[in-house]
Amino acid sequence: MSRVKFCTACLLALMAIFAGREAFADRLDLIQKRGILIAGVKSDYPPFGMLDGNARLIGFEPDLAAEIARRLGVRLQLVAVSSTNRLQKLDEGAIDLVVATLADTPQRRQIATLVEPSYYASGATVVTSPHSRLSSWADLRGKKVCATQGAYFNRAMAQRFLLDLQVFNGTRDTGLALRDGRCVAWLYDDTGIVGVLGDPEWARFETPLPSMMVSPWAIALASTEQGSRFEHAVSEAIADWHRSGWLIESEQRWGIKPNHFLTDMRELWTRLQPDGSPLCARQSNDKWPVECRNKFLLSSADVDGMQRFGLLLKEQAGLDLAIIHDAYDRQLFLHGLWVTLQLMVACIAGSLAVGCLGALVAESGIPLLSGLVRISAALGRMTPPLLLIYLVFFGIGRIIVSRFGWTFDGAAIAIFCLSTYTGCAIVSALLDAVAVLKEQEAGFSLRRRNLSQALRLAYAPVVASLVNVVKATAMASVIGVPELVSAATAIVAEQGNPAVMMNVLMITYFLLVMAIVQIFNFLERRMLQSGNR
Amino acid sequence: MATAEIVAMLLTWTPFLALGFAWNILISLVAMAIGTVLGAVLARLRLSSRKPLAHASLVVTELTRNIPTFVFLFYLAFLIPAELEVAGNLYAVPAWLKASLALSVAVIGFVSDNLLVALRHQQSRNHAAALLFIPSWTSYLVTIVMASSTASVIGVGEIVSRCNIVIAAVGGDETMLWVYTYAISYFLLFCFPLNWAMGYARRRLLARIGTATP
């Protein structure tokens, strides 16, 4: 097994190279050198961040970013970010700051610099169809609830109300999932829901439950910007906005329903002390007074023994192995591993079934049908599997739901699409083998009894296709199947530990693929032995 | 949606989607270039007379074969910083380049294996058999072009990402079906002639090999 060991060593060396990072001491220097402030905003969250008719990013939050750029005396470049990737992009340095409906939480403070004061606030609520008859959050216990990946309350709400969360990428996919009946409710932000429900397609839907976990929104900078001049400048800007009432004007300008948070903040930031000086002024340590900060975040987070051990590991060794010390993440990851294993086995079986059946029909000599299968197999090989998954899941799935009311499981659709794609490759490998066999013995024709003969001859290309489909199972993550990649990205979105999680993901996949290759090699040896006997 | 409406909608967005497909081809060509150079080095080393070198090269080839490109795509997206500073200059590492790098891993393994066979044929002066590498390489380019659609998951503005933008902008239940089908037709139109031509080239070469060594 020395080769296996060497393989692993090479992989680890590769990872060590990519783990290294570089950064400027203060982001403000980089921004001024560049002359451009790069801000991440939402593109699917009207009216906070959206695209106009010319595909330009506009909204409440782009206006805030523009104001900061104006104050810094640089130009502004807006980049669309999602709930999933905003902190990742910030962490990797692709953007300077995030103004993208980001709620301030203790966990996020560990992985990014969240600037105080906050500029807005929101809570969690659910959208349901009018027939849901929900009266309290407890009615949702154990029910399938669709959620958008990366929302800060997903985990807490799932734990608190035992929701069976179905996590999707982006607002569009989650909304579609609810409308397709994949879940009974859509867990979302009460501010985001306003933009969605404004669409006539959503007219019948409602929000029957009170908002939970109301949380202030913060502009986020990279974790290294804690206490930097950049943080100071952004913080000053927001404080001025509260004092001048500019945020309230901005809210009106975008037609947003007035939020109590802004009126409360306006009052707080303009309040004077008995001696006539403003209450919210910087103290000698450059911090805002306690009264002007986010109160619930000031108390230290409750940490139990296991979590303390995990944090110790993180502080001492720099390893944030959330999947070991955090029960929720561990369960998420193990479930992902289990789903991935099921997908792999199902795709191998499905591909073989499609391939063998296709080859038998193509060789059956039935007029029209044989030719049709040959053409389909050729076309199937030239259709990108990812597009096929989108086409079946969203395109065809949508029409079937609206016509017949049937919904299909995402995993089943992923298995179907990947098996079809790989099956087409296997058909052509088998047909090549049949051509060779026909040259060897005249009058050979592929039937069920001599299928194994063709499979044996086409063993190498068939196995190559099967190994490819095993690797491709990760594509199921794009339609919300909770497999390994989904689990890993969800954990990264919550914990902000991409280096550790991505390495764990790579090693896990690498070992899975290696194990499957070894199994096929073993089968090949067995086959050769039985062939010799 | 009436047929005329669908056709008009697809025509309106054709330049936008076609440019996306150009990105798919660019990502694939860059991946092929990187993968071919590195794969060629590995193939050459595997023929080396120095045993450890040949062995190490084989192991690296096997390593690249075990790495799933889709997962590697996420890996690079998360772990390569977006801007690298080298000697005081800032170099951006765009997402499409990360996609090319992820795809190139598969190309390395392919080139290492297939070029090795070609080099052996070359050494035994079997030039026609060695030339079989060219149609194989081109067929692999087609595979990579199809795989390049996965770049959409890390936010590269290629054709699949653009499909999603079009769908969001146009709205409506049936739009998705037509936009995705239209995108698939781009891949078919690109891949079919190339696959056909390479099949023809392969048959011609095999015929030449057949007549050269009766």
TrEMBL record, chain A:
<dbReference type="InterPro" id="IPR035906">
    <property type="entry name" value="MetI-like_sf"/>
</dbReference>
<feature type="transmembrane region" description="Helical">
    <location>
        <begin position="500"/>
        <end position="523"/>
    </location>
</feature>
<comment type="similarity">
    <text>Belongs to the binding-protein-dependent transport system permease family. HisMQ subfamily.</text>
</comment>
<keyword id="KW-0029">Amino-acid transport</keyword>
<dbReference type="InterPro" id="IPR001638">
    <property type="entry name" value="Solute-binding_3/MltF_N"/>
</dbReference>
<keyword id="KW-0732">Signal</keyword>
<feature type="transmembrane region" description="Helical">
    <location>
        <begin position="337"/>
        <end position="362"/>
    </location>
</feature>
<feature type="transmembrane region" description="Helical">
    <location>
        <begin position="457"/>
        <end position="480"/>
    </location>
</feature>
<dbReference type="Pfam" id="PF00497">
    <property type="entry name" value="SBP_bac_3"/>
</dbReference>
<keyword id="KW-0813">Transport</keyword>
<keyword id="KW-1133">Transmembrane helix</keyword>
<dbReference type="InterPro" id="IPR043429">
    <property type="entry name" value="ArtM/GltK/GlnP/TcyL/YhdX-like"/>
</dbReference>
<keyword id="KW-0812">Transmembrane</keyword>
<feature type="domain" description="Solute-binding protein family 3/N-terminal">
    <location>
        <begin position="36"/>
        <end position="258"/>
    </location>
</feature>
<protein>
    <submittedName>
        <fullName>Polar amino acid uptake family ABC transporter, periplasmic substrate-binding protein</fullName>
    </submittedName>
</protein>
<dbReference type="GO" id="GO:0055085">
    <property type="term" value="P:transmembrane transport"/>
</dbReference>
<feature type="transmembrane region" description="Helical">
    <location>
        <begin position="413"/>
        <end position="437"/>
    </location>
</feature>
<feature type="signal peptide">
    <location>
        <begin position="1"/>
        <end position="25"/>
    </location>
</feature>
<dbReference type="InterPro" id="IPR000515">
    <property type="entry name" value="MetI-like"/>
</dbReference>
<dbReference type="GO" id="GO:0005886">
    <property type="term" value="C:plasma membrane"/>
</dbReference>
<keyword id="KW-0472">Membrane</keyword>
<feature type="transmembrane region" description="Helical">
    <location>
        <begin position="383"/>
        <end position="401"/>
    </location>
</feature>
TrEMBL record, chain B:
<dbReference type="InterPro" id="IPR043429">
    <property type="entry name" value="ArtM/GltK/GlnP/TcyL/YhdX-like"/>
</dbReference>
<dbReference type="GO" id="GO:0006865">
    <property type="term" value="P:amino acid transport"/>
</dbReference>
<keyword id="KW-0472">Membrane</keyword>
<keyword id="KW-1003">Cell membrane</keyword>
<feature type="transmembrane region" description="Helical">
    <location>
        <begin position="20"/>
        <end position="42"/>
    </location>
</feature>
<dbReference type="GO" id="GO:0043190">
    <property type="term" value="C:ATP-binding cassette (ABC) transporter complex"/>
</dbReference>
<feature type="transmembrane region" description="Helical">
    <location>
        <begin position="63"/>
        <end position="81"/>
    </location>
</feature>
<dbReference type="GO" id="GO:0022857">
    <property type="term" value="F:transmembrane transporter activity"/>
</dbReference>
<keyword id="KW-0813">Transport</keyword>
<dbReference type="InterPro" id="IPR035906">
    <property type="entry name" value="MetI-like_sf"/>
</dbReference>
<keyword id="KW-0812">Transmembrane</keyword>
<keyword id="KW-0029">Amino-acid transport</keyword>
<protein>
    <submittedName>
        <fullName>Polar amino acid uptake family ABC transporter, permease protein</fullName>
    </submittedName>
</protein>
<dbReference type="InterPro" id="IPR010065">
    <property type="entry name" value="AA_ABC_transptr_permease_3TM"/>
</dbReference>
<feature type="transmembrane region" description="Helical">
    <location>
        <begin position="101"/>
        <end position="119"/>
    </location>
</feature>
<feature type="transmembrane region" description="Helical">
    <location>
        <begin position="177"/>
        <end position="198"/>
    </location>
</feature>
<keyword id="KW-1133">Transmembrane helix</keyword>
<feature type="transmembrane region" description="Helical">
    <location>
        <begin position="131"/>
        <end position="157"/>
    </location>
</feature>
